């Protein structure tokens, strides 16, 4: 995969994850705002600020209490499950809960499956153009505003300067911004981050009383005190990243509105202004200056887009001084919201990661291949066909289409699976979402003989499909003795699929493993086994094996994945002069899967430690 493809692939995963995460978090913030509508505005402002910050938090961020851990088990997957009994065969369609050890990723779910109009590279280019236009437009308008402001007269003395100094004393602002006088009929606003200025119109200065001027300037000083211009630039950044996202526009609008309510409340609480007087001042400013800011975010004013003056006046008139009221409960509610919902990704599940989790009897791995020098191969040795070892449970002999196939004719009417032995008449075709092919209900899901089962489907062009064969919770593909086939999948793309979709069917390959497979005299100071893959992985893992040949894992240590999902690390504690052997996946444990659910073919990994500790 080229650098460009890697960038596009990483962007594609991020944009899909951040899109649904921001949408969900915005809905939760709306619910929070309704539940806490009587709380001080700063409470709701904090929650909307969290929504904006979410865009800059890695989508893979997770904790044991992440919301993603609640969402992943309730991912609805379609399961076509046929259960055989001595007297009848019943067909049913159910919604299943994804078992944790199935390692179904949360913020890395399969992306939009049918990109027929544009390639993923085209979508990346379109997003880049939109982002560049958004940021460039903001910078140009801000530059023009700063130039215009710098040419305005500086009021460093007189009634207006006295008013701002009085307001600064009441609000405990040590260094108030400069005051600029504008001939343009506009509402007062604060502009600038490092060298701020408050711009007031000449018409307002001429018509407003001294007390009204002080109140207006107090509102702008509070914007400066709260660093709202910095937050405005943050809003511009995230809006540029998600310029297409309606929920992001909604979140930014609500944040601007709550920001004004926060300053209104602070004027009443900290400035000691009476609600009725402040309400009259707002109306005075509204009637004198009707212009709105050119670019919300780069500057903040007493009236911004979406000011909703009636709602603000109602809030002002209902103000109650709650300085003696404890805000601990509200702070706890906001903190709980952040802890639960900012980490949207499910925690990595470490199924089969310790020797105690894997019985020796379940270890069924392909034997290690060796090169001419007699050394075990570490990568690429799983791509060639090998004889399937005889197992107590049924194995898949072949499928149609083949797993990993590309360019499949979308006109085919059925998917077939053939097993290595006679089977019972039950079946579990598992999967869900757009990646599961639509079932042709006019045809019968059936066995055509004792070993081959057919799923009638209706395929589309330029699509990616994944069909599960059994799962951890549905295992009706089994032989007459009741032994079930280990969960597997058929994954393929149809003709016309983009390169991004075709990449989804690539079987993961190990690019590097440390210590190397077959190594001798491995140092006892080695604290971890590290394996890297050629594609982003889904977050699950299956370090298989058991007994003395499986390395001990130190207490309190856990396996982990790198941020890019390509490198997995297993903490170990090695003994001297010992032969270790473990597996990455097996015929019954295959949680090492690509981001799109394609499993790594089982690999045997072995090495021997030194007999004398390294000095």
Q: What does this protein look like?
A:
This protein has three domains: 77-106 and 392-503, Immunoglobulin-like, CATH 2.60.40; 124-317, Metalloproteases ("zincins"), catalytic domain (Zincin-like, 2-Layer Sandwich), CATH 3.30.2010.10; 355-377 and 507-609, Immunoglobulin-like (Sandwich), CATH 2.60.40. The chain is 32% helix and 18% strand. The chain has helices at 3-35, 41-54, 67-71, 120-150, 159-171, 202-207, 210-225, 228-241, 246-269, 275-288, 309-317, 328-341, 499-503; strands at residues 77-84, 89-96, 178-182, 189-191, 197-201, 299-301, 396-400, 405-408, 414-419, 427-430, 446-447, 452-456, 464-469, 488-494, 510-514, 519-522, 528-533, 543-544, 560-561, 567-571, 579-584, 603-609. A six-stranded mixed β-sheet has the order 2-1-10-13-14-8, with no helix packed on it. Strands 3-5-4-6 form a four-stranded mixed β-sheet, sandwiched between helices. β11 and β12 (452-456) form a beta hairpin. It is elongated and about 95 Å long.
Considering the chains and any ligands shown, give keywords for the structure.
615 residues, alpha+beta, Zincin-like, Immunoglobulin-like, 32% helix
Architecture blueprint of SSEs:
Layout: H1 3-35, H2 41-54, H3 67-71, E1 77-84, E2 89-96, H4 120-150, H5 159-171, E3 178-182, E4 189-191, E5 197-201, H6 202-207, H7 210-225, H8 228-241, H9 246-269, H10 275-288, E6 299-301, H11 309-317, H12 328-341, E7 396-400, E8 405-408, E9 414-419, E10 427-430, E11 446-447, E12 452-456, E13 464-469, E14 488-494, H13 499-503, E15 510-514, E16 519-522, E17 528-533, E18 543-544, E19 560-561, E20 567-571, E21 579-584, E22 603-609
Helix pairs in contact: 1-2, 1-9, 2-9, 2-12, 4-8, 5-7, 7-9, 8-9, 10-11
